[in-house]
Amino acid sequence: MPTPLPPDLHPTTWAALEASGVLQSTEHRLIQDFYGQQRARRSQVLFMNHIHEGLAVMLHLQASPQAMRAFCLHPLVQGDGELRDHYARVAQAVEPVPGGAFVLGLAMEYRSVANAYLSHAELPPEGIRLSPLVEVNAMLAGDKVQNRKDFELHHAQAHANRVRLAEYFQQWCQALQIDDRYPLLKALLQGAAWS
User: Fold this and answer.
1) CA atoms of 89 and 101, how far apart (whole Å)
2) How many domains does the chain divide into?
3) Closest CA relative to residue 26, chosen from 106, 85, 94
4) What is the pLDDT of residues 148-194, one digit of tens each?
5) How many CB atoms lie under 10 A from the CB of residue 128?
6) 34-66 pLDDT, tens per residue?
7) Phi, psi (5° rounding) for residue 159?
8) Rounded CA separation 4/15 (Å)
9) Full domain range(s) for residue 138
10) Domain assignment present for 195
11) d(Cα 118, Cα 168) in Å, to the nearest integer?
12) Degrees (nearest 5) of the Cα angle 129, 94, 4?
């Protein structure tokens, strides 16, 4: 069964994502099987939209195929509960795939960096710690741009912590040096043509 087009992605963006091969990867299948038709509680947006839109951002930023495959895995290993419940199965599934160990390592490094600064915490005095791996920072860019877009679309006016969340997403985009490109990347996720 073909993967459905996320509602906001332009067809040329979706075509570029399909051409990248990531939608046919073992890692994409794992997250698609896990998420299925699950939706976010507040916005009712399919969880797979987060994956597809984050991948679109990463592709636009010229992230590597390994980084995009690892992005597909990140929800399966990010939290302690997810890591406990899914790590063995994920590791077994990606082990025979060429580069699978590297991809799983990227997902684990993503977990380490992303979990070091969450929205309920204050910005550390030394700032946000990025990864020494360019692939992981590309994953963070895809995640934060997509989350910021959804926040602005669905929660910026009504969320109880909207001021803090707006600051949090801006801090991440500044640390990742994509704050000036955020309007373009957001437009990409809202139907702008691939360029």
Assistant:
1) 13
2) 1
3) 94
4) 998 888 766 665 677 788 889 999 999 999 999 999 999 988 876 65
5) 15
6) 999 998 887 788 899 999 999 999 999 999 999
7) -65, 135
8) 12
9) 11-188
10) no
11) 8
12) 85
